[in-house]
Amino acid sequence: QVQLVESGGGLVQPGGSLRLSCAASGFTLDIYSIGWFRQAPGKEREGVGCISRSDGSTYYADSVKGRFTISRDNGKNTVYLQMNSLKPEDTAVYYCATEGAYGSSCSWPPNYYAMDYWGKGTLVTVSS
């Protein structure tokens, strides 16, 4: 069964850190670029960043640049989103998604129509 599963969300205080994981089962992640997205209550889904398949290049939304880092471990079939210096406005459900098997680079700004598989998301709450 083809599946993407996000994990690592939870409640964290402002200024804290979390690392989200995006694990694949039923297929190999290393043929895809991967995007991270989030959706806050009452808001549209937005792109957080992405990592390219070919060379690991990363791109980030201005709102998270310098605080969030995307990495991948192909041996573990997992992509990570390290989130530091978290702010209340980072509160959202976070999703990962694959983009275009065997494509070289991820799309930034993100192209939602190019995304193949989506996880169900993990909730991140930043609050004191």
Description:
This protein is mostly beta strands and 128 residues long. It has no helices and eleven strands. The protein has strands at 3-7, 10-12, 18-25, 33-39, 46-51, 58-60, 68-73, 78-83, 92-99, 115-118, 122-126. The strands form two sheets. Strands 2, 4, 5, 6, 9, 10 and 11 form a seven-stranded mixed sheet that branches. Strand 7 (68-73) and strand 8 form a beta hairpin. The model has no long low-confidence stretch (mean pLDDT 95).
SSE layout and pairing:
Layout lengths: L2 E5 L2 E3 L5 E8 L7 E7 L6 E6 L6 E3 L7 E6 L4 E6 L8 E8 L15 E4 L3 E5 L2
Parallel strand pairs: 2-11
Antiparallel strand pairs: 1-3, 3-8, 4-5, 4-9, 5-6, 7-8, 9-10, 9-11
Give descriptors for this structure.
128 residues, mainly beta, seven-stranded mixed sheet, four-stranded antiparallel sheet, 0% helix
* Tally of helical runs: 0
Q: If you compute it from the alpha carbons, what radius of gyration comes out, rounded to the nearest whole angstrom?
A: 14 Å
Contiguous uncertain segments of 5+ residues? none
Question: Could you estimate the helical fraction of the residues in percent?
Answer: under 10%
- End-to-end C-alpha gap: 39 Å
Q: What global shape is seen?
A: globular
What oligomeric assembly is this protein in?
Answer: single chain
Profile the largest sheet. 7 strands, mixed
The beta-strand count equals: 11
Percentage beta strand:
over 45%
State the secondary-structure class: mainly beta
The average pLDDT value, as a whole number, equals 95
N to C succession of SSEs: EEEEEEEEEEE
